[in-house]
Amino acid sequence: MNLAMNGGMRTKTMIITTKIPASKIRLAAFFAATLLCLMTLFGVASASAHDELVATTPKSGEVLKTSPKEIVLTFSGELKKIGTIINLKDAQGQAVETSYKIERRDLTVSPSTPLPNGEYNLVTRVVSSDGHPIDKQLAFSVEDPEAAATPKPTPAATPEATNSAVPEVNAAPSAEPETENTTAPVEQSPSGMFSGVPTSVIWIIAGAAVIGSVATVLVRLRRQGK
User: Fold this and answer.
1) CATH number of 81's domain
2) What confidence tens digit (pLDDT) does each residue in 3-26 have?
3) Domain-embedded: residue 137
4) Which pTM does this prediction carry?
5) Domain range enclosing 139
6) What is the per-residue DSSP string for the chain?
């Protein structure tokens, strides 16, 4: 009897589980689909909440005929006036001095001096209204025909001396009038007399003179003694 009762309960349970109304299944599927759609919409809304760059003046890649006085970047929402970074560089990577201002959705960058012909790249970082930083780049170039046609000033050339210049007059030294040598001849000193004579010969002559003088003195003494 117990077995019969247990078998009947199982049969009823199986009948109950298999007889779930189709309307409830459709309702559960509808709720699941609705929840999935809401999650998707909230995800897209949160992702699109950040401001984006919508326009630039000049446009990216534009070739300008004159140096721009202002470079304007327009965003989809108002910008905060904190955390702004501006970096304008030329083709050689040299930084160009600039100033900027923020007015609601516009970021205006002004070069401090006119830009020479060449390529430029503007790198900016701004903070959107929700506090999210936005990094953007803008490339453009300047090709001013008048600036290209104007020759660069060259330093004045130093005048070179030419044959047409007045020749330098080399004054010849004035000739001193020749004067007759009326002065008495100056006796040459012994050194002048014997200039060019070997030293050994000079010593022999000096020795002979001394010997001759001594011999003369001796001869005179002998004569006086007689």
Assistant:
1) 2.60.40.1220
2) 445 555 555 555 445 556 666 666
3) yes
4) 0.47
5) 53-148
6) -HHHHHHHHHHHHHHHHHT--HHHHHHHHHHHHHHHHHHHHHHHHHHTTS--EEEEESPTTPEESS--S-EEEEESSPEEEEEEEEEEEETT--EE-EEEEEETTEEEEEESSPPPSEEEEEEEEEEETTS-EEEEEEEEEE--HHHHHSPPP-PPPPPPP-TTSPPP--PPPPPPPP----SPPPPPPHHHHTTTS-HHHHHHHHHHHHHHHHHHHHHHHHHHH-
